[in-house]
Specification:
The protein is an all-alpha fold. The chain is about 90% helix and about 0% strand. The chain has three helices and no strands. Helix 1 packs antiparallel against helix 3 and helix 2 packs antiparallel against helix 3. The model has no long low-confidence stretch (mean pLDDT about 80). Its main location: mitochondrion. Keywords: CF(0), Hydrogen ion transport, Ion transport, Lipid-binding, Membrane, Mitochondrion, Transmembrane, Transmembrane helix, Transport. InterPro entries: ATP_synth_F0_csu, ATP_synth_F0_csu_sf, ATPase_proteolipid_c-like_dom, F/V-ATP_Csub_sf.
């Protein structure tokens, strides 16, 4: 009978000590992961901004193709005056897509 009365407070003390250690370990882990998470978020932001600006290179290649085709088209048929207006339209659309990509890169870097 006396052993049971002594064992109950002892077991409660052991359980309380174990939960206190577990809570302090969880608190330390939360503080550690917040710093790592900030680093991972920052790295993801830079990777996303870099990936978004790759479209600018595609825009440059598209503009080069358009004006290369314009030169070839004028060489084959110099009488086509409509060809230049189509080339300017495609140039504007390609340049706009490049600017949209660049804008998205800046938005990822500075707005988020």
């Amino acid at each position: 009978m006396y052993c049971q009365r002594l064992a109950v407070p002892l077991s409660r003390a052991i359980i309380a000590r174990a939960t206190l250690q577990t809570e302090s370990a969880l608190a330390a882990r939360c503080l550690h992961t917040s710093v790592v998470r900030k680093d991972i978020d920052s790295a993801a932001k830079y990777i996303g901004a870099g990936a978004a600006t790759v479209g600018v290179a595609g825009s440059g290649a598209g503009i080069g193709n358009v004006f290369g085709a314009l030169v070839i088209g004028y060489a084959r048929n110099p009488g086509l005056k409509q060809l230049f207006s189509y080339a300017i339209l495609v140039f504007a659309l390609s340049e706009a897509m490049g600017l949209f990509c660049l804008t998205m890169g800046f938005m990822i870097l500075f707005a988020l």
